[in-house]
Amino acid sequence: MNASVASHRLFSKETAVVVLVVVILFALLPYSHASALIPPGKVTAETTSPPVFSGTFLQPDLGDSWNAAQWEEEFEYMQDVGIDQLVLQWTANSKFKTAVYPTSVTGYTQNTTQDLMELALETGESVGTDIYVGLNVNDDWFFKYANDPIWLDQEEDAAIAFADDLWTKYGSYSSFKGWYLSLEVENWNFPTATEWGRLANYYDNVIAHLKTLSPNKPVVISPYFNPAGGLNLAGWQDMWEYILDVAPIDVIALQDGVGAGHATTGQLADWFAATQSAIANARPTTELWADTETFNLDFQPMAIQTMVDDMDAVQPYVTNYLSFSFNHYISPQQGNSLYYDTYKDYYDNGTVETVAPTIPAGLSATALDSQTVQLLWTGSTDNIGVVGYQIYRNDEWVGRTYTSLSEFTDVQLDASTAYQYKIQAIDAAGNLSGFSATANVTTPAGASYPTNLALGKTYTASEPAHANYPDSGGQLTDGIRATSNFGDAEWQGYFAAAPLEFVVDLGAVSTIDEINVGFLQDKPLYIFLPKQVEYFVSSDNINFTSVGVVSKPAVGEATRTKDYKMTGLSGVTGRYVKAKVTQLSSWIFMDEFEVRT
Prior knowledge:
By secondary structure, the chain is of the alpha/beta class.
């Protein structure tokens, strides 16, 4: 029985996803990060108050998008806020047989445009940043865990092969400071000493080889936890005592899980304390570091105050702070520089600024059609800057913008319905303005199209639904709507790196006035609404013409069903109707593909 857990790491280029394991849902998950023992002269979190980051994880795809000058600039931004450790999260993908450097390992090819090992190590030497080298990742880990010892042995062999190759090619760099093992262990899928023993042996064998190559280079892992189930605190402590008694792990960089939605700030102390106790009882030389998340569930930057609160919560238990990830979510090269400005202000002054933005003024709401309302207002001001606005509809938070622009378009609304809006401004620290005045609007009536041309028709999918949430045959067009319970057999569940495509054959060329597909949101289970759905029509199932795109609508946090509807189409005809579903790094649960006239 699997349960609700999800790592916060993104996959490699081939599988850029964040995955979950949910109660009764099957397992998939991403990759972690960490750093190593602090070399002499480094400042540790133990002696730093208030806490600050000294390290960051970097995923290869982002690094491959930088030229040499941008690598230098990125490291300078890091140095300016005290970050002088970088973990290159992986160097190879043992599932897809790819590497991020010109490897000599048999059967592997480089899939990056640059030698990322050379770039990282050379830049590190030039600016004084220590580089920790991740070995192989493989997203099959999140199916296999420690339940398949043959597969785990194969991953062990791959790790050793890449360690040999990397050390031969790059071991002479003084910036090469340590190793990182990418397999992420959590409290749900390792219930007994059988799984613990397999993990311990994997760690022990790989680390023994690494110590033979580089005796003084520390080895880091980065597990995570989800308090909603799985091993409890006592079981978690027992597991790590068992593993550490066998495997000489130098650093456990424990993911805090707040950004990924696993944990709250208030839960962190207990889990970090249990991990520290395991270390004290089994291997006191192991260091416990915090792997602090810097993002939200919508994969946007976390408020700086929240990050600091998370670091404060674990300060009694850790000796250093890594970030996942300064580079991806705080750096001015990647996003809104106000997050960097606010973090640097905290780094320089020791407190997060508390000045709230001014209240947005002049909010107006205008119905553009039966499904769409446009909001306009006069922008707020802030001492550092406004990073976005919180949107409330009928007193429910439904989303936020990540821009200082003073406008928002609310889509996929119901026709002939009254709506009430208010907004708040937010800055990078997380300070909120007061609420704006309320704006009221009623959407006009929409046309009704009673005939569902797709009812009972055949269709094809670009890939089958997951075996745990299958399409038993014809469910997308059987006319039966699924409930908001993910266990409803009408739902088909998908997890794919590429967009999904579904094509319904109407049987004959027909006039089409409305196209609609239903989806499920259940955020605790990492079932999210698609980023967008694009609809197409064709007369021959070969040449398709786009009808339009439905973007992800603004909805609250509650579990719910939501239609992605294009209505009032004019002059659209076709026999084949295609929906191209682009995911938001999550499970997609889909039901009922309707084509109406």
